[in-house]
Amino acid sequence: MHPLTDTAVDPAPREGAQPAPGPVDPTPAPRRRRFGLLPRILVAIVLGILLGLVLPETVARVFTTFNGVFSGFLGFLIPLIIVGLVTPAIAELGHGAGKMLAATAGIAYLSTLLCGLFALALSLLLLPRMLGGASVDSLENPEDSAIAPYVEIDIPPVFDVMTALVLSFCLGIGLTLVSRGALQESFVQLRTIIVRIIEAIIIPLLPLYIFGMFLGLTLNGQIWTVIGTFLTVILLVFAMTVVVLLAQYAVAGWAMGRNPLKMLWRMMPAYLTALGTSSSAATIPVTTECTKRNGVPEAIADFVVPLCATIHLAGSTLKITTFAVAIMIVTGMPLDLGALLGFVVMLGVVMIAAPGVPGGAIMAAAGVLTSVLGFGEAAVGLMIAAYIAIDSFGTATNVTGDGAIAALMARLSKGRVSGQLQTGGHASVQGV
Known about the structure:
Subcellular location: Membrane
GO molecular function: neutral L-amino acid:sodium symporter activity
Keywords: Membrane, Transmembrane, Transmembrane helix, Transport
Structural class: mainly alpha
Oligomer: single chain
Distance between the termini: 42 Å
Number of strands: 0
Membrane topology: Multi-pass membrane protein
InterPro entries: Na-dicarboxylate_symporter (IPR001991), Na:dicarbo_symporter_sf (IPR036458)
């Protein structure tokens, strides 16, 4: 063996053989820094506004043509996203640690639901006053209200969103009642395909879609109302996330018999890591370690944190609900309380379709926005832009809340858990 390279060296190379490579440089190649999704979205918004002031119509029509095709593809994909992600996620809730898993899932859903209801109540109370007389009448598609696309392509979905939701629930619950077999493996593979489509097509093209959206809003004169709405709602969302985290850790402090503010402070490394990654899955190791420092037993933390990274998206639900109400107000849509309550309930369930996927929560929620609240393509596009603009703060709220749920589960399962509990793995979008 060669003393440096640890590879076999032929003392008498055969005729015609390639010369042996020289010593390998042990220094790893420097990693190329990636331009993250949030910076790309912000650049797209700024360029869309600036170029919308000077771009000739013939050039702008290229981008509205792309937006029309992309919107059609997204509408086609949304029911498949729901079936491909929600079905296996529900099915996997039937396996693992039995009652422990069911209790964790129930508490995670309750936390997500309560955050959505809190956001809905506060939004209905404050946003009509905060937004004042802001109005863009009916927010039509920019490619329809400003300039027409060169080509229109109709891509009808295989089935509608409500069919996809009901089908996912029926299949997912049914799969929990039978032994794991070929059908569940097929849905796991379908989930992998859907995640790869989001990763390779939807996420990379989102900045271009957002650029076209803001280009159209500038051309039709609606942009300043939209920007003012965004800034107002962002401030409200930040304030609500602080209240939510304080409430969650008040419960966690009671459960552990500890100072809730100190427990929340120990979770700050996880919060800051999530700000940088915008991914619950990528933050799991840090969240788990912070949770253990709060006195949660290792077996509980190692089980609850990875599971909640999949199913507990309280911060995401809060953001989506608040921005949905804001867009409904400025576009003059009726604020039907029954429909909004149904939306929050369904949103809490659909959130399990975005396990650790940066920006994936809003992609899964798009179906509920269109089917329950009647959002059009332009309104959904604005929701995507608004969500991703503060995506990392919602993710940070999600993962910090996971530590509070782990603390509560530690109290509920005290003396009943020994050893390591395991959960199934979940697909996540990489490299965003």
